[in-house]
Amino acid sequence: MQKQSFSRDQKPDRKPRQGGDKFIRISDVLPIADIGEISDGEFNLDYLKSYSHVAELEECIENALLDVGHYPYQGRRSCALVMGRAMELLRDCYCLDAPRGWVPVMRCLRSTDGDGYGPATQRLEQLQADMNSRSPD
Q1: Contact by Cβ (8 Å): 58, 93
Q2: Which residues contact 113 (CB under 8 A, 6 or more apart)?
């Protein structure tokens, strides 16, 4: 796989979220290539019913998570980062476009300040609670 360059909008912020003394990585919050989770519940899964390349998309999501999973998790912008990388891989590897609705969801995630209320946000809250409960007072 070739080296990836990120646009300014895709670069992770410099201040990673912390739980105790440990940084929370994208792969901690998004451990599997689940479309509902990487979009923090924003992507309408009904669009996949008419999309004939779901297997390729899921493979590209897995590879995107391998590529950027070590980055610090920065809320919904990190979800957009994974979606954007998966879209790039889908185009580069298979000459395919992402399903309908993909790009608007990425834009929504990039523009959202803070966290949402979807699966990624819930997992982050659980990770933070677990880390805080383990750290000595």
Answers
A1: no
A2: none
